[in-house]
Amino acid sequence: MIKSLISFKPSNHVSGILLMVVNAFFMSLLYVIVKILTNDCNFSSNQVGLLYKLSILVLTLVSCLNLGFIHHLKTKKLFFHALRGFFSIMGSLCMFYAVSVMNVLNAAAISELTPVFMVIAGVLVFNEKLTTPKIILLLGSITGIFFIKDFTTIGKDPNPGYWFAFLALIFWSLNNVVIKKLTKTEHSRAQLFYSSLFASIFAFPIACFQYTFDFTNYSLDLNIATWPDFSAKAILLILSAGMASLLHKVSFFRAYKLADMSVVGPFDYLRLPFTGIFAYLILDEGITNNYSLIGYGLIVLSGIYFIMHKEKKPK
Prior knowledge:
The protein is mostly helical and about 325 residues long. The protein contains 14 helices and 2 strands.
């Protein structure tokens, strides 16, 4: 029996599921780290975005130094790499700002709505058919957001974090389109290197300023940013954010290579319970209102239904 356990090799589906669980774990951890850096270490979300991308760039170079990485740097699609870097950092900056000013679990729930934006883009831009799984995804997710946001308070001190979270989804959806273009010819390590390189370049000037938004009066206050002290705790958290993101990206794409989306996709929603646990234990954040659980459930169930049924062809 012991010999059989030692020689056990999981199937591609099992490996894919485990990798997707790893992806959800580290993505949830990233949100919590960002919250600590912005709230406890006094970094702005823009500064965190720059430092986070720089840490990914350094970790990528270190990890790939002995893997023939120079060979994989050759590319004829530098423009698309730059485009991906721009969409990636803009999405991260928007979501990091959202995380810094709102409940982390709510931000994580909104981040799961990327398929909704992809479906809307497919219908409006590419004239794709509005199938039953797509309709269920749209209705379930939109209804879920109403429960999470508690729109009985609409118009009363609106939290700008929600708007930035949705803006992040738009940028990430555009990023996914570019990734599909690059995946056909570009090596994954080259994609990671160029994405973090260009993202760092775009993030640098943005990190030099501090922005304050007032959505009630539609005003923007712009000031030169001041940098807090780089304590040992802050440096460790920044490196941890880069490592968490790197592990999230690698496990995510590896999971989809090993198994079908319908098998591993639903496990990406584990980031919600993971985020809830981390937020409660580390940040002492709870669920904002009793209706939020209904909203989380609607987003998860409609998303899983969409993943399980979207590729089924009608008879």
